[in-house]
Specification:
By secondary structure, the chain is α/β, with parallel strands linked by helices. Helices cover 32% and strands 16% of the residues. It folds into 2 domains: 2-86 and 272-291, Rossmann fold; 88-263, 3-Layer(aba) Sandwich (Rossmann fold). It is built from 10 helices and 12 strands. The strands form 2 sheets. A 7-stranded parallel beta sheet has the order 8-7-6-9-10-11-12. Helix 6 (140-151) links the parallel strand 6 (132-136) and strand 7 (155-159). The termini are close together. It binds nicotinamide-adenine-dinucleotide. The site of nicotinamide-adenine-dinucleotide (NAD) has 33 residues, from helix 4 and helix 6.
């Protein structure tokens, strides 16, 4: 069995997967591969799947499978799996890092010092304690953010189209209700036709406060032009994001070089610990499918 590791995984993973066969990172061998491991970089579209003549299993190391044409793969008898829980802590910690960094003005503080300035008086900070946090989507990652925010003394509530109640946080019935009085909004939904552009001019005009918006979900869940306008007009205090409509964002992405936009290069899942967890989940998936005679 040939296993193709197509994207960046833990460097120790090939040694673990030799339990099941030959392991390669040579993408030109796609046609012979029976198992392909991808993260978000490899796009498993129709052409890719058509070229993978021997493929039985695609493992997406991570959560979002929007880079895989799952329906088409399954129509060809290919099993598609992801590692849904491995990344929760890594992404939640990054969302929280942005949430701490923005009001504490860490980036401006560092940049000004590196430029030889001393702007102690100008850099007024604000605290998370006592502030409201609206979580959009209450799944695995979002729940980890909720736990951390509660520990910081924030008042946390959430909107999730498919979750009515929760032991962790108060649920709001509509997106408009959820964002209305939020000081912070953290996005944790998958990209679907329903969530694409869900933060847009219409939703932003309902804000009664001037929130900081943190996005570690998917870039296209916010309308970038509307976000730019909201930042420039002072309806949104800051936008901290790890995700973009494309990886990397195009040069003409409206949010590049806008004041109060803080960016990380899609590193939510890239903690050392998470890459190890993803590797062991991938190993377990292959092991289980072989034992069940499915591959
Ligand atoms: P999850 O499936 O556990 O949670 C997603 C939640 O969104 C679910 O509870 C679901 O009911 C809710 N939801 C779906 N459609 C909705 C809608 N229209 N309105 C409101 N809620 C809706 O997933 P998760 O593990 O928490 O991950 C969330 C997202 O984070 C992923 O889909 C992925 O896009 C993104 N992600 C990003 C990184 C990164 O590196 N930045 C890493 C992993 C995941």
């Amino acid at each position: 069995m040939l296993i193709l590791i197509s994207d960046a995984f833990d460097t120790g993973l090939p040694d673990k997967l030799v339990d099941f066969g030959e392991v390669t990172d040579d993408k030109s061998r796609l046609a012979d591969a029976e198992i392909v491991l991808v993260r978000s970089k490899t796009k498993c579209d129709r052409d890719y799947i058509d070229n993978a003549k021997n493929l039985k299993l695609i493992i997406r190391g991570g959560v979002g499978i929007d880079n895989i044409d799952k329906e088409y793969a399954e129509s060809k008898g290919i099993i598609v799996r992801n590692t849904p829980k491995a990344s929760s802590i890594a992404v939640a910690e990054l969302a929280f890092a942005h949430m701490i960094s923005v009001p504490n003005r860490i980036v401006e503080g560092h940049t000004s010092m590196a430029e030889g300035k001393w702007i102690k008086k100008e850099l007024k900070r604000t605290e998370l304690y006592g502030k409201t946090l609206c979580l959009i989507g209450l799944g695995n990652i979002s729940k980890e953010v909720a736990r951390r925010a509660t520990a910081f003394g924030m008042e946390v509530f959430a909107y999730d189209k498919y979750v009515e109640s929760s032991d962790l946080v108060e649920m709001k019935k509509t997106l408009k209700d959820a964002v209305e009085y939020a000081d912070y909004i953290s996005m944790h939904v998958p990209l679907t036709p329903d969530t694409e552009g869900m933060i847009n001019e219409d939703i932003i005009k309902g804000f009664q406060k001037v929130p900081v918006i943190i996005n570690t979900g998917r870039g296209a869940c916010i309308n970038a032009d509307d976000m730019k306008t909201a930042l420039e007009s002072g309806k949104v205090r800051a936008y901290a994001t790890d995700v973009y409509p494309t990886d990397p964002p195009d040069d003409d992405c409206p949010l590049r070089n806008v004041k109060n936009v803080f960016m990380t290069p899609h590193i939510g899942a890239s903690s050392v610990e998470n890459l190890l967890r993803i590797g062991s989940e991938a190993h377990s998936i292959i092991d289980e499918l072989i034992k069940d005679g499915k591959i």
